[in-house]
């Protein structure tokens, strides 16, 4: 360990962002990357705690204390080697991971946690800048072929690992470009798409075959898929949105969050959106229903499109701003989280239930809402939602975005063609080896575990690759994490 007293000398310095007045005028990344000097100072705060709970909390088990120490000592190449050993997409997680590791940092018990996510981002960007990352195709091929359906984080991680093992991997993506939810589900101000292109270019030079614009259920016959490939991994994500089926839902001006996000990303990419299908917040009073990250992304896009007014409502009560007894360290706590989009303006309201939509001439004009409270049943310990009497109110709106989560993967796709089984939640059912009820057909990511975090998708992709390699070869040297 470089400096045993680093955490006593250096205080945490949080992420710096571009000024609000500047960044709302474009879709460029809002984060300002730190200097190497700053990163080394922050890395010195890692306190050699003995038991790295940060690593325990990380779904890909990053070697966090080790690469923090290496960065502090200036050994950037070695830090990068350790980082890429566990994480296939650190330039992605370094930008948009909620940093589960930081909430389990031992230093966080009595002080501010180490800036683990930013240190990770600094390492990978230093590696790209200094030429550490070069295509490294496998020296020996196994002769085995694998099809990966879906090119989100789970699919990319799975493909990368299997390619490293020497298998011929083909990734099928129904959109026109690789990336899945990374490409069209996340705004550029959080993740500029050249970050994806940079990584995909490396994968291509390493031998992974990418095929875009191919919907596996429409363009590929299941019999041909099974005949051409020795194994198939399904990584199509959880894309079936949860709807809000209340009175007035049929009115115009009410849209699903993913439709809004996809259109915004298409416009930033220079693509035309048909006027009759356009979803645009310019000059409108926008209501985003749903208080999560997807809702926050919709808020940020609405700012940039020029909305007159934005309010984000959430049915759950306002979370605490610090740990409560229900979430003791090192558990990930349910805390109030404000994104860069919230810092840019708009209103947030909590414990609000939408009762109905009302409109004029078929166009939504108002939300009729009521305040709610969550009451604990002392006999069962369960919480129940109660409407607060005489708390009804209305919100005027021209545009409503529904960001209330996702149910499960879309079933009427290659999943039904392959006749895979689903669990009680509607996700693809797989055993401990990630194999579905169909021999040689595996599943990973949100499609298998349900809507979750990108870092969990990467973890799923890595684990599934280990089991696919074992299925193909009898054993595997790929890590099981």
Distance between the amino and carboxyl termini:
26 Å
- Based on DSSP secondary structure assignment, what is the total number of beta strands? 18
Number of structural units classed as domains: 3
Summarize the amount of helix as a percent range. Answer: 25-40%
The CATH architecture name of the largest domain reads 3-Layer(bba) Sandwich
- Based on CA atoms alone, the radius of gyration comes out at 23 Å
CATH classification class of the largest domain: Alpha Beta
CATH topology of the largest domain: FAD/NAD(P)-binding domain
Q: Specify the biggest β-sheet.
A: 5 strands, parallel
What overall geometry do the principal axes of the alpha carbons give? globular
CATH superfamily of the largest domain: FAD/NAD(P)-binding domain
Number of distinct helices: 20
Concise structural overview:
The protein is of the alpha/beta class and 481 residues long. It has helices at residues 6-9, 20-23, 36-43, 53-57, 64-73, 76-86, 90-96, 100-103, 116-129, 153-164, 181-184, 194-205, 216-219, 222-228, 257-268, 293-305, 340-343, 414-418, 446-449, 454-473; strands spanning 16-17, 31-32, 145-149, 168-173, 209-212, 231-234, 240-241, 254-256, 285-289, 309-314, 347-350, 352-360, 363-376, 383-387, 393-396, 399-402, 406-408, 441-443. It has 3 domains: 6-129, Alpha-helical ferredoxin (Fumarate Reductase Iron-sulfur Protein, Chain B, domain 2); 145-239 and 407-473, FAD/NAD(P)-binding domain, CATH 3.50.50.60; 243-404, FAD/NAD(P)-binding domain.
């Amino acid at each position: 360990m470089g400096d045993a007293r680093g955490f006593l000398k250096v205080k945490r310095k949080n992420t710096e962002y571009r000024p609000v007045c500047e960044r709302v005028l474009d879709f460029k990344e809002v984060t300002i990357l730190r200097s190497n000097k700053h990163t080394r100072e922050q890395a010195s705060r890692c306190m050699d705690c003995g038991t790295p709970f940060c690593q325990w909390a990380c779904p890909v088990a990053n070697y966090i204390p080790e690469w923090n120490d290496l960065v502090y000592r200036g050994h950037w190449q070695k830090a990068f080697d350790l980082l890429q050993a566990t994480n296939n997409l650190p330039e992605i997680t370094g930008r948009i991971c909620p940093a589960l590791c930081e909430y389990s940092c031992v230093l966080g018990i009595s002080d501010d946690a180490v800036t683990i996510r930013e240190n990770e981002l600094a390492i990978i960007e230093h590696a790209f800048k200094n030429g550490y990352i070069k295509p490294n195709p496998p020296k020996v091929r196994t002769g085995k072929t694998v099809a990966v359906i879906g090119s989100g984080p789970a699919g990319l991680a799975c493909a990368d690992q299997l390619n490293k093992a020497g298998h011929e991997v083909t990734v099928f993506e129904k959109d026109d470009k690789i990336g899945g939810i990374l490409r069209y589900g996340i705004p550029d101000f959080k993740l500029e798409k050249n970050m994806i292109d940079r990584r995909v270019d490396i994968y291509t030079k390493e031998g992974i075959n990418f095929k875009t614009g191919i919907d596996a259920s429409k363009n590929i016959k299941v019999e041909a898929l099974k005949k051409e490939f020795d194994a198939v991994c399904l990584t199509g994500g959880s894309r079936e949105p949860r709807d809000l089926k209340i009175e007035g839902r049929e009115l115009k001006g009410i849209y699903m969050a993913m439709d809004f996000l996809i259109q915004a990303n298409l416009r930033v990419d220079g693509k035309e959106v048909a006027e009759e299908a356009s979803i645009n917040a310019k000059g409108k009073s926008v209501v985003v229903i749903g208080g999560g990250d997807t809702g926050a992304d919709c808020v940020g896009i609405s700012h940039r499109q020029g909305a007159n007014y934005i309010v984000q409502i959430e049915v759950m009560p306002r979370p605490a701003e610090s740990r409560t007894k229900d979430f003791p360290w090192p558990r990930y706590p349910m805390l109030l989280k404000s994104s860069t989009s919230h810092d840019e303006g708009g209103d947030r309201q909590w414990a609000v239930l939408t009762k109905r939509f009302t409109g004029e001439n078929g166009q939504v004009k108002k939300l009729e809402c009521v305040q709610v409270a969550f009451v604990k049943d002392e006999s069962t310990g369960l919480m129940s939602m109660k409407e607060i009497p005489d708390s009804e109110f209305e919100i005027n709106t021209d545009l409503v975005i529904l960001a209330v989560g996702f149910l499960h993967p879309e079933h009427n796709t290659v999943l039904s063609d392959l006749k895979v089984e689903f669990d009680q939640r509607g996700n693809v059912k797989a055993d401990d080896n990630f194999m579905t009820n169909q021999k040689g057909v595996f599943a990973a990511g949100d499609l298998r575990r349900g809507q979750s975090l990108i870092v969990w998708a990467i973890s799923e992709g890595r684990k599934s690759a280990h089991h696919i390699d074992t299925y193909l070869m009898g054993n595997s040297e790929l890590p099981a994490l």
